[in-house]
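User: Is it possible to get a 3D structure for a protein together with its bound compound? The compound here is beta-D-glucopyranose. I've pasted both below.
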Amino acid sequence: MNPTESTAKSTSPLEDTNQQRLPMGSCPFAISDPVQQAQVEEILKPLILTQDVIDRVRDVFEDEMKLGLAKNPPKLSSLQMENTFLPELPNGTESGEYLALDLGGTNFRVILMELKEGTIQREEVKYYKVPEEVRLGPGEQLFDFLADCIKDFLEKKHYTGEKLTLGFCFSFPMHQKALNVGILVHWTKSFNCPGVVGKDAVKMLNDAIHRRCGHAIDVVAVLNDTTGTIVKGAYVDHETAIGLILGTGSNACYLERVSRIEKWEGQHDAEEVVIDIEFGAFGDNGVLDFMKTDFDREINRNSLLVGSFTYEKYFAGKYLGEIARLILVKLVDEELLFKGKCTEKLRTVGSFTSQYVSHIEKDSMELSTEETEKILGEFGLSYTQDDLKIIKYVCAVISERAANLVSICLAHLLCRMDKPHCTIAVDGSLFEEHPRLRTLMEAKISAWAPGKQFKFLMVEDGSGKGAALIAAIATRLRAHSKAIISGEC
Ligand code: BGC
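Assistant: Yes, that's possible. Here is the predicted structure of the complex:
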């Protein structure tokens, strides 16, 4: 399927009729009882970012980026600013057959892609569900599972070709020592397999392939989904310079001038290289504690990886619904919602998904209550008209905070790169499904990066297709005897 391009750039989101109904930068809220209204507003107030907080977050982001790129930083940055060792994006000459793996969520994919002169000719994909016992079990078992899937995929396709070249999309924070060496820094999202942190994911994959697969496979590149997304974006639009993931997790990568990467000591001849920011971990060192609410603290306490991935927990798809649920429960307990009556389901951690937030936001935009009422029905809750307004308000406030936080980072990147035009390639279910995140973000970025021309490009399957494209780029680089750049970083 073709990627879909957004309308962004110069069109003012304020011209959008839906946005006129739900004005930008504010979440209209009015219920029949002004005292109750003030009490609800008071509870949600810490989630509304003032301009002062927004400025502070931006300044801290800038400082942390600099620290993350520094050679001898005086203190540790919460931004990894990882060198991906990817010095080039697709240039239209890539040809051949490539295998790609995509691991980052509960669905693992194996992809076989054929390219001819930079154009995708054919693509075969198979999905495999990664069971919980594999996501949380020993590392070796996870990589054996991946190798078994490759074997199954190739057997089902009756693949009899020669040695295959593979790009491995491994969407976790890695310390990359070369394009095909990725040391896992820590697990995120729903994975926590002992025995992998500190090890090279490519080596573990290679070993498993030798143990279980029986096919000759050369793993030439390891990347995370943001890198796959920037590459897939560049395949469609050469002005792509940022890759953004806004799905279960969140992160971005961008093209950085090599001269500004102080910590890169090894040999390199590229002008620019893709840097994986890993902004999901922004604030893990406490630099964002000033904006943390009680709800965020609770999200962290209930999470699989307590104390890490602070920024991601403020807005990513894995958490947005849960933030809404915690607020709703608090409002019920304060007798401000559902006449103080809750259900077991609403009290259950994880029961309120981010998709519900998207659906309720859709209602707000369409001046409807249909979706919201359906959801409340599923939760067995009785409600009044005011309850519906409160729920919509909660979803609007946390969506606005999400848009603010992602936009702060993107606006800063646009200013830092200072390119005449920049396309931001985006992938991820939250960005795709939420009805107004994109419009909100366009308006905020335009305001915070004045004069910078940008547009969003929705790319489907950046991680899978991007991994295959990177395998092709790596092969091209090797063929042109441009040694894959290595060095201490
Ligand atoms: C991972 C990143 C990834 C992001 C989006 C985060 O949890 O650490 O590497 O890019 O999720 O999938």
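The two ends are 37 Å apart (CA to CA). The chain has 16 helices and 14 strands.
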